[in-house]
């Protein structure tokens, strides 16, 4: 039986052109980018070239791209780095006027433990962020930071009124993802940026664009973000390489989480992973070149799948991913990402379904596969306001570059017996 992979939001296969671009940097051009000899020069040149490619695609400056070991690490750097920087700043004797509040906070109670509510710095994150943002926020909360978890509507779009009401003089960072990995909802990032910056342009705005880069224009200036997280393995690049865009001008507000040899402009020490960095850039190039065509093609597959699925299983419902203000589009592919479809199957258990799908040769997901093989109920579906029985009966289908109409058709056929 032919295997069908419908879990591209979890990870993607490495594109063969990406693999070919990486290949020479393992055993042939293996220099350490920190070395001054020829091999080292070759490595740093490759990294510089890759950095330039990625910077250009998101309309950033060359030195605004920081390579990390994953998007998880980039998200950690964005959140922890901001807090650390603030605390360092607060510890200095002379502080800028806008940080006087924080100076007081630091003087009274260093590192935020047991802080008095009024002095606690605050960050705002959406309640449907990836675990690498949410768990980091929770961890910082334990350290005394105030965290606001922004609610979303039934389609997964963040509550902008709540955002407006949550911003105050203590707010130092807001993090809202570009597009969600479980339901595909696209967040109004430019609108959110305007709300934040109109309130106080000193507040940092971070977005996790890991799932978005493949299908959306992630221009940091159009979106108005200060920090942006990217990952290679969601876009047919290698696993274990990510990047954080840090806008020039806010760099003094970010302190490295990993210290050492001072690589990556001092923001991320550790010998650079040259093959993966080269592969990341190659993957970005290909994904951007194919973006519009793939967006349309994959979107049509998703629409077809949903239309036909409804015929087999009329009670199925789409979770999230519909337009916020319109109450739902005619087409399943807008305005969510074209590749992700999260479906509720009444009276079915997603764990059982997952096994049945697997036995039928179809790889899908019962939620976010990025959370270490866990089958815990999805926090994203819960945040949509779905009751637990719906959360436990939902599956994520995600399509990709190799998905064909025949495969979709074949999946639907096999599903007739599964459900
Ligand atoms: N952010 C989002 C939206 C994701 O979907 C993922 C996927 O795992 C991550 C972050 C983490 O990426 P990485 O696997 O590179 O750490």
Automatic annotation (TrEMBL):
Catalyzed reaction equations: (sulfur carrier)-H + L-cysteine = (sulfur carrier)-SH + L-alanine
SUPFAM superfamilies registered for this protein in UniProt: PLP-dependent transferases
Family: Belongs to the class-V pyridoxal-phosphate-dependent aminotransferase family. NifS/IscS subfamily.
Single annotated GO MF: iron-sulfur cluster binding
PROSITE patterns, alphabetized: AA_TRANSFER_CLASS_5
Aminotransferase class V domain mapped to chain residues: 4-87, 122-409
UniProt-listed Enzyme Commission number(s): 2.8.1.7
Cofactor: pyridoxal 5'-phosphate
Annotated protein name in UniProt: cysteine desulfurase
Classification of source organism: Bacteria, Candidatus Joergenseniibacteriota
Enzyme class, UniProt record, top EC level: transferase
Pfam family for this entry, one: Aminotran_5
PANTHER family: CYSTEINE DESULFURASE, CYSTEINE DESULFURYLASE FAMILY MEMBER
Keywords assigned by UniProt, alphabetized: Aminotransferase, Iron, Iron-sulfur, Metal-binding, Pyridoxal phosphate, Transferase
